[in-house]
Specification:
With about 70 residues, the protein is mainly α. Helices cover about 85% and strands about 0% of the residues. The protein contains 3 helices and no strands.
């Protein structure tokens, strides 16, 4: 849902489709990267037997980041 909202906002503002896509990517990339990297790390921790504190910390930091405005 976030992608659709941000893409619509950027396309309305942009002079060209390319400019809108670039603005969308600048806004979304860091947030999407955070989700992917933290998910990979949580998976790694789980495969190693689970480190509940580390998993909890990663989930909490992800939740805080995702609660921020885009």
């Amino acid at each position: 849902i976030e992608d659709g909202l941000v893409l619509a906002e950027e396309m309305v503002r942009a002079a060209t489709i390319e400019a809108g896509w670039q603005a969308f990517t600048r806004r979304r990339w860091p947030r999407a990267r955070l989700v992917v990297e933290n998910s990979v790390e949580i998976g790694r921790l789980e495969q190693e037997g689970g480190n509940d504190a580390a998993i909890r910390d990663l989930m909490a930091s992800s939740t805080r980041a995702l609660a921020e405005a885009i």
